[in-house]
Amino acid sequence: MCAGASSLALAAPAPSEPPALLLGAAWYPEQWPEDVWEHDLALMEAAHIHLVRIGEFAWSRMEPREGDWQWDWLDHAIALAAKHHMKVLLGTPSAAPPAWLTQKYPETLRVSNAGVRDEHGNRQQFSFISARYRALTHGLTERMAVRYGHNPTIVGWQIDNELAEPSFDPEAHKAFHAWLQHKYGTIENLNQKWWTSYWSQTYSDFGQIPVHDAEENPALLLNWKQFVTDTWVSYVRNQTAPIRQHAQPAQFITTNTMGWFDGFDGYTLHQSLDLVGWDDYETDWTDNAARHDLARGYKNKNFWVTETDPGFVNWRPNNLAHDKGEVRALAWQAVGHGADAVEYWQWRAALNGQEQYHGVIAGADGNPAPIYAEIQTLGAEFEKAAPALQGTSPHAQVALLHDMPSRWAISFQKQVEDFNPVKALTAFYGPLRHRAGTVDVVSPRQNLASYKLIVAPGLNVLPQETAEHLLEWVRQGGHLLLGPRSGMKNAENALDPHLQPGPLAPFLGAHVSQFYGLVQPVPLSLAQKQGKGTLWAETLEPTDPATQTEGTYGPSNGWLDGQPVAVSHQVGKGKITYLSTIPDAATLDAYITTQVRDAGALSPFADLPADIEACLRTGMDHTVLVLINHAKTPVTFTLPQPAAGRDLLDIKQVASGQITLPGYGVRVLTLPNPA
Question: Where does the Glycoside hydrolase family 42 N-terminal domain lie (predicted)?
């Protein structure tokens, strides 16, 4: 047993089993005197909150001086949570090292891309590569795991908080050079793969390679991002290792990622974690849906929303409150997309610090904020619906490929200022979600066997092995829709001399002969629509008489005039289609509708009004349908025949036919599975 650990921490009473669907809040007992803790927890319990996250910023309270471990306060906080029938998600506090640590060990502080070392006073000011910092965080986590690893109140562990920026310190330089040497073996091999003869960049030693993310060789930039990913993976494993060693296996391990954050590859990072957690601060409901599906796609399983705001944030240019009822609607949206827990940040307003203006459930005085009643209603609804939701999850017939190397490669070289690879991705997501229902946002390297249609809006980096993986799926009957800029680069972020879409060109029966960045849209006809191509367009040249063309460009720059907008080709039992632009929203919706229908993946809810979202979670013997009106005003619509069932919130039967949902209204129905 580690020094400072004690079996006394195991004396907390076992709480009653919480619901399968958890409502939670971030609680910071270290910021408040102990005589107010009971009041806070009683208010939470009255709001049907069954989960608190604690500890993730409390290192200076746990270890106020080096080696001076203080656990009594945390023991007491966990015991009080158990008394109020709550589970605890325990955070490791490595995101905010104490002042004594950064003063004594300044080498643990992060160095920016500009070469400036961070100072104490914020958070995430540590170097993710620092051996000293890793030793200190490992020791801290080990003490926590020994002390709380068998405490029945602890449901799981959150590693750090919102992993973010890399460090460019000397240790990072040395580690990157070693990483490159391990990958390439010789500097001659690296020079050849990176094409360093361009601009006389040829290296004679790995130590000569610069370490920063400015506009450098595209291969260097991609390798740096991959190194950063691997370094964050090892940083996380440095803390998961002692938890795996000392804690009971029932305590899961997660971290809280940030939606479309591009600092590392989330698919790689989550391989060593048990559960995906993500922090949801999005306001647009369609983009929010995509982020939920991204979180679910990391491990192809249900996830937790580890943070979301109870009304508003404080870090945008304009921090506006959600409408009344919208917080509840967004929570149910998370559940519909596969969340088994929704946690609010934070419970109570901090008296000082950088987030004083952030939305809370209880004010600085400890009394309920206006949003409390809405949270209380939501908590009661979660309790009602939890038994039916247990063991259910979304199941998709359609996938959207989100490939981090491709996204990085396009971000490095946009060619058109407004070409945002995430916006390009979500442009396709919206109509896919509307027409196909459930959509998985997955990596091209995952198991794809369950999908009928896969859409890859910008699969820019396409290694041979990834192409073969996709081809095997197509041969078995899948329909692959590639978007513009696909198959342009190889694994080294170098142009593929075989032209787009690279290894897939022979099977497409066509290739891209030239690309054109667009500032002004160009006219096109596609899917019986007269529309516009935006941001990017390409000339497609069929090379096989069996290749079918779809749509044509109208007159614009001369190069595109009369050229096909899309081509498709049968491959085995399936087909590959290449769309050479991003059409305007209406045209893209029409085109995606044809693709979804042709693949046999059209949802029975495909014709619902634009602001109505239908989410399905399927279990062994039943399905739960979550219907949400994201509009401020009531919407009347027709439920298709399969939607007749029992309303879990009102406990009454709902027949198919006309239904009216009030503004931000929610219905949660349980339906029998088809025979």
Answer: 27-384
pLDDT digits (tens, 9 = 90+) for 640-665: 876 667 889 986 667 667 889 999 99
Helix, coil or strand: residue 518 = coil
Contacts of residue 155, defined as CB under 8 A and 6 or more positions apart, other chains included, come to 18, 51, 87, 88, 89, 251, 252
Residue 161 is assigned to a ligand binding site: yes
The helix (run of H) or strand (run of E) holding residue 532 is: strand 529-534
Q: Are 98 and 63 in contact (CB under 8 A)?
A: yes
Could you tell me which of 542, 290, 301, 381 has the C-alpha nearest to residue 47? 381
pTM: 0.95
Q: Catalogue the long-range contacts made by 651-657 (C-beta closer than 8 Å, 24 or more residues apart).
A: 651/384
Q: Would you say 224 is a known binding-site residue?
A: no
Going by the DSSP 8-state scheme, the letter that residue 461 receives in this structure is: B
Measured distance CA(120)–CA(674) in Å, rounded: 59
Torsion sign over Cα 11, 15, 17, 18 = negative
Amino acid at 608: L
- Neighbouring CB atoms inside 10 A of 10's CB total 13
Ramachandran angles phi, psi of 50, nearest 5°: -115, 10
Question: Among 45, 162, 165, 541, which one carries the catalytic annotation?
Answer: 162
Residue 249 amino acid letter? P
Separation in Å, CA 461 to CA 102, 224, 467, 503, 558: 40, 15, 10, 11, 29
- What per-residue confidence (pLDDT) applies to 650? 84
The average pLDDT across 82-102 equals: 98
For every residue of 187-208, DSSP letters joined together read HHHHHHHHTTTGGG---SSGGG
CA atoms within 13 A on the CB side of 403: 28
What are the distances in angstroms from CA 299 to CA 302, 325, 442, 445, 459?
8, 31, 9, 12, 20
Higher pLDDT, 192 or 18: 192
In 543-584, at which residue ranges do the beta strands (DSSP E only) sit?
548-553, 564-571, 574-579, 582-583
Name the 3-class secondary structure at 273. coil
Q: For residue 162, indicate whether it is catalytic.
A: yes
Q: Is the pLDDT of residue 4 over 70?
A: no
Q: 305-364 pLDDT, tens per residue? A: 999 999 988 778 988 889 999 999 999 999 999 999 999 999 999 999 888 888 899 999
Is residue 38 annotated as a catalytic residue, yes or no?
no
Which residue among the candidates 63, 307, 492, 550 is catalytic per the annotation? Answer: 307
Residue 646 known to bind ligand: no
In this structure, what token pair is assigned to residue 76? 């007491």
Which domains are assigned to the chain? 7-96+145-165+251-389 (3.20.20.80), 171-208 (no CATH), 398-598 (3.40.50.880), 612-672 (2.60.40.1180)
Look at residues 435, 472, 442, 501 and name the one whose alpha carbon lies nearest to residue 574.
Answer: 472
Classify strands 612-618 and 622-629 as parallel, antiparallel or unpaired: antiparallel
Contacts for 199 with CB less than 8 Å, ≥ 6 apart? none
State pLDDT tens for residues 10-66.
333 343 456 789 999 999 999 999 999 999 999 999 999 999 999 999 999 999 999
- Measure the CA–CA gap between 488 and 253, rounded to whole angstroms: 38
Q: Which residue has the tokens 């643990």?
A: 108
Q: What's the mean per-residue pLDDT of the chain?
A: 94
Report helix, strand or coil for 132: helix
Per-residue pLDDT of 410-428, as tens digits, reads: 999 999 999 999 999 999 9
